[in-house]
């Protein structure tokens, strides 16, 4: 794993990463990555016909953010979820392979609606 000037892990300039590569970049075992996939719905690796996970660059960036929240800032899983939900759209860069104007998937829409509902509920209190 290499680090950039700020001391954070540098993400190589590739379109897709295998789980072992992401594990090395993030410095966490692959079973932790598989667990985080179940806890953070924003991590959506594509699958090959053989079932192998292929993480996009935005997935790797998100994994590094999750690691920072959990390991350095000592967030709980739920706290990290809420933090990412509040910051959705700013923390993850778009996938360069998705053409412009591609509609968001249902998970993104649901997360945004939950964020809006939470803002409304907080305003009512």
From TrEMBL:
Alphabetized SMART domains for the sequence: HTH_MERR
CDD domains: HTH_MlrA-like_sg2 (cd04765)
GO molecular function: DNA binding; DNA-binding transcription factor activity
Claim: Acyltransferase is one of the keywords in the record: no
Disordered as annotated region, ranges: 84-108
InterPro entries for this protein: DNA-bd_dom_put_sf (IPR009061), MerR-type_HTH_dom (IPR000551), MerR_fam (IPR047057)
Keywords: DNA-binding
Superkingdom field: Bacteria
Name of the protein: HTH merR-type domain-containing protein
Organism: Desulfosarcina ovata subsp. sediminis
Domain (HTH merR-type) ranges: 16-86
SUPFAM superfamilies: Putative DNA-binding domain
């Amino acid at each position: 794993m290499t680090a950039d000037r700020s001391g954070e892990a540098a993400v190589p300039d590739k379109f897709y990463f295998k789980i072992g590569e992401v594990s090395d970049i993030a410095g966490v075992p692959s079973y932790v990555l598989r667990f985080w996939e179940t806890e953070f719905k924003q991590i959506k690796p594509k699958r090959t016909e053989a079932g192998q996970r292929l993480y996009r660059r935005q997935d790797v960036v998100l994994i590094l953010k999750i690691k920072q929240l959990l390991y350095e800032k000592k967030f709980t899983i739920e706290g990290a979820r809420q933090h990412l939900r509040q910051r959705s759209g700013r923390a993850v860069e778009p996938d360069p392979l998705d053409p412009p104007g591609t509609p968001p998937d249902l998970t993104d829409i649901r997360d945004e609606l939950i964020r809006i509902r939470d803002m409304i509920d907080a305003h009512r209190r």
